[in-house]
Amino acid sequence: MTLDGRVSIVTGAGRHLGRAYALGLAAAGSAVVVADLADAEPVAAEIRDRGGQALSVRIDVNDGQTLDTMAKTAFDAFGRIDALVNNAGYFKNAARSPIEDIEIDEWDRSFAINVRGTWLAAKAVLPAMKRAGYGKIVNIGSTTCLNGIPGFLHYVSAKSAIFGMTRAMARELGEFGICVNTLNPDLIPDDEMLRDNPANNERAIAGRALKRTETPEDMIGSVVFLCGPGSDFLTGQSVNVNGGNVFV
Question: pTM value?
Fold first, then answer.
């Protein structure tokens, strides 16, 4: 079960989780298009240095034209698009506040990036996937939708929309051989989060069957599975990678 000969696109791939997805897909044999608003060339170079195939593109998930260019660049370079990992999102910089204090612009930004951006990226790769009669779209959700994190209504609501989007996409695209699933990480802190607010990570660990910090590398096996041949009859589903979190 390798990804040899396949081509994957990862949005938001310049750092943290997106970088892990890109490196993991490349290690499994896929050529990877590393897409990000920031410069993602260091990640693409890292893949090439390890003997893989990769290129980087600048995107803005709020700009459909840049996503169309992303898809065209991938197809022109590699001749196919097998998988899209919709990882780009608005989380770390999202302001936390009580329901009545959430700014309208903040609410709109969360939906524009997390929901509309996911749709636009999928829309961009669909022509290539439909022509091939095959494809894998992995939308990145969040376990916050299951435990309803207080003070984060705009993010939880936006990520909850991904669940419905995935189900609807799966139903509509099944006739073209395209599988669409949601992959839900639990809290995966970066170094800054661990330094500035370790209590959040400690609470997450306390609710898990596996009592440790979740890392980006913990997500790799699941994303490779969902982008590969082993999941060819799996669609419309939601996969939680959370160490057995009981959502309390």
Answer: 0.95
